[in-house]
Amino acid sequence: MTYKSFPLFLFSFSLICLFPTFTSANDNDENIYDKRMALYKKTEALTEIPWYFIAAVDQYERQIYKDIEDDQVISIRIPPELWFGPGNDSMDENAIKLLGGIGKDGNGDKKADPDNGEDVLFTMALYITSYGYSAEDFKIALWNYYKRDLTVQTIKNTARVFKKFNGINLTDRDFPVAINYNYSYRNTWGDRRGFGGNRIHEGTDIFAGYGTPVHSTTYGVVELKGWNLYGGWRIGIRDIYNIYHYYAHLSGFQDGLKVGQIVKPGDVIGSVGSTGYGPPGTSGKFPPHLHYGMYKDNGYSEWSFDPYPYLRKWERMTKNKD
To answer: What residue numbers bound the domain in which 277 lies?
Structure first.
């Protein structure tokens, strides 16, 4: 596919908090989403870049930094040396251009201000269009900026999610096992595990009967599906907050589920089992349960964190829907 002759763009950097709260938006949040979408749509009108590409890059970068203000609308941070050019701090476009910088005036105030969201969006648009206008060109531009395959994949997948659901305010969540079945769980993150050598338990075990439906907890894209020595039949879903959700020990997958598929909260992705701790097909070495793990990506590395508080919150949210 080729995107219409658009001066492509965007790079948005910001992190609301290290781990998002995953709760329904309040009135202020709604206003922030509206402001962001207005700028995305404005940039789309000026550059012919699909708004969901703009939103996806902004969303990715919003997860990277720890010092983002709650009311910050656009979060891009283009390095000063790239924006101004070496040894320069002038916001004059001519001075910036003369010294090899890329900063541009996007809002017509005669200043190329790296702290102005419109200027940053417009600047990044022009940066990306220097690589061309196709989907492949967009991918190359992202890679040359980030130099990380996972980052490029995450941004592209987030754009697909935003496009499919035609919005960025995707705050709904679901509990990972069907709540109309019997289940139990407690906080097991950090417990010791012995199979394969001493290690910690990077998740929460939710015990339920064989075949209990397993749900996607979030909006995201299926990144991984298959067998793992420790996890048995397992699925990995990366969401729009740079979080990887890991579902392990499944008895099977939902029919038709495939890598690259877009999912939403409540979608059935598989069923509870007791697979793992051996070659493909090994089962029954422990009681049936779902191992649910969460891993945060900060643009450089990925690490596990305790999902238990989120599970308690999502359990309440799910029950309140009924």
So the answer is: 183-321
